[in-house]
Amino acid sequence: MSSDRQRHRGVNLPPSKGRIDSALHEEFQFHLEERIEQFMATGMTRAQAEAEVRRRFGDVDTWHRMARAIDEETMRQNRRFELFDTLRRETARAFRVLLRTPTFSLVALFTLALGMGATTAIYTVLDAVVLRPLPYRDSHELVSLLHPATVPGSGERKWGLSSGGYFHFRQNMKTLSAIGMYRSFGLTVTGDDDAEIARTALVTHEPL
After folding, report:
1. Residue 178, in any domain of the structure
2. pLDDT tens digits, one per residue of 81-132
3. What angle do CA 101, 103, 109 make, to 5 degrees?
4. What is the C-alpha separation between 33 and 46, in angstroms, rounded?
5. Which domain holds residue 126?
6. What is the three-class DSSP state of 204?
7. Domain match, 118 and 189 both
């Protein structure tokens, strides 16, 4: 039995709660069996030896829980130490590599800075257009009205409402509290400098 335990302990697997429970169970069973064998050697039957061992050993489940709590705390501390040690070694290694290849390091840093800047810009636009609520009262209730249309060569599409559709909805709507319409287009703006194309829109006035 001792040689089996030595071979088992020779396998150094990463600790886990399951392995802790298994190891503690084997450890307790090993000591209990040894004591049972000692009492049986004095002339006791196995039942008598087991009863005597249980009496002397006490509540096995309580001792098992206490030992498991100690081993789990030790495992957590070891993992934290290993994490910090790995971070320290990898950071030192990264600095050594960067110092040995300054050109590559500058290119990598420039690429990272460019990537972070682009990501920040994209997130800013996404936050303003998609994530952040519109600056209107009850903005979550806003809806966009479209109607299906068949476009030659393009198949089924969805277009905005026509002027007639807008007035039809305005006169007959029952589920909307208000309706508005806009039409965007480009205008040429002239002045002292060169002419430029400005994006503009015509918007109906609807009290909300």
Report:
1. yes
2. 888 888 888 888 888 877 888 888 788 888 989 999 999 989 888 887 777 7
3. 100
4. 10
5. 101-131
6. coil
7. no
